Amino acid sequence: MASIQIQISDHDLSLLRRIAKSIDRRLPDLVQIVFADGLLYTFGDESLCFKKEQDELTQEEKDQIAINKSLEENGYYSLSDEKRAETAYKEVKKYWQNFGPTETASRGFDNLIKPMIEEIKSIALN
Fold first, then answer.
1. What is the pLDDT of residue 109?
2. pTM of the model
3. How would you label 75-88 residue by residue, b for 16+ Cβ within 10 Å and e otherwise?
4. Which of 5, 26, 92, 117 is most exposed by smallest CB count within 10 Å?
5. Domain ranges of the chain
């Protein structure tokens, strides 16, 4: 597990300790929760998208990418919509993003910020 350090004044540290105590939290847990909530505040309206590293793809995703590549090389895009639906082609999310389209919304998909917030908060809350 990695850690991040920030610099704050002695006075701010004292205030944060007292805030944590007033809500029955340990200071590290409070800072963890504040950091997680800050990610949503900072990136909630900003669209982010960048390619996943190879080691961030699951084996299932790697296998599906190989299947998709084979189908594409053998005329997948020339098939009718009905024929395409009958193939083993499945979309693989190769990018981390926080504003991707879903079947029901143009900006509902988030495999980046919201999952990261949940994971960071779970460390403090569990």
1. 84
2. 0.76
3. eeeeeeeeeeeeee
4. 5
5. 10-52+93-125, 61-89
